[in-house]
Every structure is written in structure tokens, then in C-alpha cells.
Amino acid sequence: MPDMKTCLIIIFFAPLFWAGWDLSVIGNREYVPEWPGELAVGGQLYQDKKDFNRLKALLGTWVRQTSAGPGYEEWVIGNDDNLRGREYRVAGGDTIVRERVNLARKQQQVVYAVTGSDPREPLPVAFFLVEAGRKRFVFANPTHDFPKRIVYEFSGTDSLHAWIDGGEKDAATRVDYYYRRVK
């Protein structure tokens, strides 16, 4: 059984950790980015509940091998219209979170809001679902410097190929990530 000091530390820090986990709230206001209309593909906004529900295939823990060791991407359910993700590494027994994602269906749009670990950029960058297939999802933000697109493509239930790039006109800047499900 933990001692009193350990209990107090847990009671104090647990709310701080979980408050940082929900990226849909920034400060005391809810973060709902504006839809940049030029992203719509043929005027189609991917907002359908079934499109969002197919994204639940991301749920679980995914691992990729790198020269620096394994990297992880983990997704959990926030609620019916929200998934929360984080990308991290484990080094020396410590978990180092590189970015957090709030993937939500809000105000008739599906938004992928990512916050990196850089304290100089505390607000999330929003990407919008512009393509929703059975096995492929494309999020875009043409006003962001890099990346302009984030793509997830499933090849089976336990294999995931994700990539980021500079958009359709600059696909040469593509960075690939190959994951396999571990949980």
C-alpha cells in the first residue's frame, strides 16, 4: 500500500496529467478550428459519423522500428466523437511524449489537432479530413508549413503505413512511418 506522501503526489499530479491529455480544451475555452474552405474535395466535407467511426481502427498501441529504437503511437477513445492519441518513445525507463493528437468530430467537420512537445508552440495545429476511404484517411492543412498532409493507410488489421508530406504538389518531401499493432 502506498504511503501518504505518494498518495498526495498522485492526487496532485493526476489531474494535471489528464488535463493536458484532452487537447480539445485550451486554457478555459474549447478549441474548434475554422474550416479552411479550400480544403474541401469537390465541395465534400468528410463529416459523416461512419467516416469518423472507421477511424476507430487506429485504437490501440502501434510500434515502429527506428535507428534510435522503437517509437510508439497510441490511440484511446475519448467519447463517441473523440479519439486521443500520442506519439512517444521510451528511453531509460522514461516515456518521452513527442506529440499529442485530439481527433474529433466537431461542428460538422473531422479535425485532427496535433500539439507537439515544443513549449513555444502550445496551440494545436489543425488538419481536416479530406479523404475517407475504407482503409485510407487523409488529413490536410495547406496553410501549415510542414507537413501539409497526414495520411494513414491500413494494410490489414495489424499493419499501418502512415506518412506526412508537403501536399499533393510536394510529395517528394514525404516521410514514411511503418507501424505494427502491439495491443
The number of helices is 2
Largest sheet: 10 strands, antiparallel, barrel
The global form is globular
How many domains make up the coordinates?
1
Distance between the termini: 29 Å
CATH structural class: Mainly Beta
Radius of gyration: 17 Å
**What is the CATH-assigned architecture?**
Beta Barrel
Query: What fraction of residues sit in β-strands?
Result: over 45%
Helix content: 10-25%
Q: Give the uncertain stretches in residue-range form.
A: 5-30, 37-43
User: Please, what is the average pLDDT?
Assistant: 80
User: Structural class of the secondary structure composition?
Assistant: mainly beta
Number of strands: 12
Strand order of the largest sheet: 3-4-5-6-7-8-9-10-11-12
SSE topology string: HEEHEEEEEEEEEE
Per the CATH scheme, the topology name is Lipocalin
What oligomeric arrangement do these chains adopt? single chain
Protein name: DUF6265 domain-containing protein
Organism: Flavihumibacter stibioxidans
InterPro entries: DUF6265 (IPR046232)
Pfam families: DUF6265
Question: How would you sum up this structure, described in words?
Answer:
There is one protein chain. With 183 residues, this protein is mainly beta. The protein contains two helices and twelve strands; from the N terminus they run αββαββββββββββ. The protein has a single domain (33-181), classed as Lipocalin, CATH 2.40.128. The protein has a ten-stranded antiparallel β-barrel. The longest helix is centred in the N-terminal third of the chain and has 18 residues, at 4-21.
What tags apply to this protein structure?
two-stranded antiparallel ribbon, mainly beta, DUF6265 domain-containing protein, 183 residues, DUF6265
